[in-house]
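In response to the reviewer comment on reproducibility (Comment 2.3), we provide here a single inverse folding case reported in full, input and output, so that an independent group could reproduce the run without further information from us. The structure tokens appear first.
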């Protein structure tokens, strides 16, 4: 294998997914802090919070996939897995920060949207890498 070729071994795919999840969580934490500052400063209605949270999650997954999914093949699957794992870890992190774990329809909603965002982000990532 040449020095600059990317390997397609499963362990490298797994490392890309782990990297995407970590990047996504860091981006989410930064964006949530920024959103909280903006909401507090400009007295934005709390009814907008679910929409803002979904936008933050989707942007975090997109940027994480764009930065970490570099190897060819199955971008949609790796993106979807990254979105699923990100959703699980984001739930745990933000529940710990919020002080409680609530198992309700919002968890299912966040997981499905995270997987869909990951799927789309993985496809976009592969299309960008190909060109």
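Designed residues, in position order:
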């Amino acid at each position: 294998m040449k020095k600059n070729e990317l390997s397609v071994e499963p362990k490298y795919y797994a490392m890309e997914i782990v990297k995407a999840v970590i990047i996504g969580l860091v981006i989410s934490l930064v964006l949530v802090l920024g959103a909280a500052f903006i909401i507090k400063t400009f007295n934005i209605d709390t009814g907008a919070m679910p929409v803002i949270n979904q936008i933050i999650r989707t942007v975090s997954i997109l940027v994480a996939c764009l930065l970490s999914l570099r190897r060819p093949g199955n971008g949609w699957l790796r993106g979807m897995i990254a979105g699923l794992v990100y959703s699980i870890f984001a739930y745990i992190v933000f529940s710990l920060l919020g002080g409680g774990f609530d198992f309700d329809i919002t968890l299912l909603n966040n997981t499905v949207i995270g997987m869909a965002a990951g799927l789309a982000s993985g496809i976009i990532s592969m299309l960008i890498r190909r060109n």
